[in-house]
């Protein structure tokens, strides 16, 4: 089976380097233009329910069946939501989070480890439900892609090394619960 993991197009918050998770922003005009390229074809699209992912999926895969899954929302950044590193400079909680290498829970938000488990559990369930398809595209958030590939891809790559830009991602094969990255999108 082939799987494509595609990060949603650019939003205003992305262009301003803001932590954006639960805020349901649309794509910018630049974001729409940035995904106006050829992507690998698929039989079905799996999508985060967030507007930025839905718009991206509809632009890239017009006419394709798109299913959403609430478990694929981005990590909840809590008090960091909508702010960028410059605005958080001097915030003791932010500095502790940075010093932890991003492993501490976000203040009033989600624990990164629990987030990764949530995403990987959802991925495993979805793949079981869609086992009859040959080509599946996931249009989701960068953190989702990083979590799944960090957990299931061989050879193993570190979570942060798997980050991808807006409208980018990975083409993969999937067999017996193992993902092999075959290229970048």
Describe this structure in words.
This protein has 185 residues and is of the alpha/beta class. It has seven helices and six strands. The two termini are 17 Å apart.
Task: Put the structure in a nutshell.
It contains seven helices and six strands; from the N terminus they run βααβαβαααβαββ. The chain is an alpha/beta fold and 185 residues long. It has one domain: Phosphoglycerate mutase-like (Rossmann fold), CATH 3.40.50.1240.
CATH architecture identity: 3-Layer(aba) Sandwich
CATH topology name: Rossmann fold
CATH superfamily: Phosphoglycerate mutase-like
Strand content: 15-25%
Report the C-alpha radius of gyration, rounded. 16 Å
Helix content: 25-40%
Count, helices:
7
What oligomeric state do the depicted chains represent?
Answer: single chain
Describe the largest sheet: 6 strands, mixed
Secondary structure tally: strands: 6
Major sheet: arrangement of strands? 3-2-4-1-5-6
Domains, number: 1
Strand pairing plus helix content: what structural class?
A: alpha/beta
Low-confidence stretches: none
Query: Quick check: average pLDDT?
Result: 97
Principal-axes shape call: globular
């Amino acid at each position: 089976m082939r799987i494509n993991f595609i990060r949603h197009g650019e939003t205003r918050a992305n262009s301003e380097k803001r932590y954006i998770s639960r805020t349901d922003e649309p794509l910018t005009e630049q974001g729409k233009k940035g995904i106006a390229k050829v992507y690998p074809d698929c039989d079905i699209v799996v999508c985060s329910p967030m507007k930025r992912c839905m718009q991206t999926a509809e632009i890239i895969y017009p006419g394709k069946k798109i299913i959403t899954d609430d478990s694929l929302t981005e990590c909840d950044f809590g008090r960091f939501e909508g702010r960028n590193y410059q605005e958080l400079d001097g915030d003791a909680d932010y500095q502790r989070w940075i010093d932890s290498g991003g492993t501490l829970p976000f203040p009033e938000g989600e624990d990164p480890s629990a987030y990764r488990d949530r995403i990987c559990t959802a991925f495993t369930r979805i793949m079981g439900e869609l086992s009859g398809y040959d080509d599946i595209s996931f249009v989701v958030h960068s953190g989702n892609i990083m979590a799944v590939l960090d957990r299931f891809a061989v050879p193993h790559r570190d979570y942060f090394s798997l980050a991808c830009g807006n409208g980018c991602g990975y083409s993969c094969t999937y067999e017996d619960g193992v993902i092999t990255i075959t290229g970048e999108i």
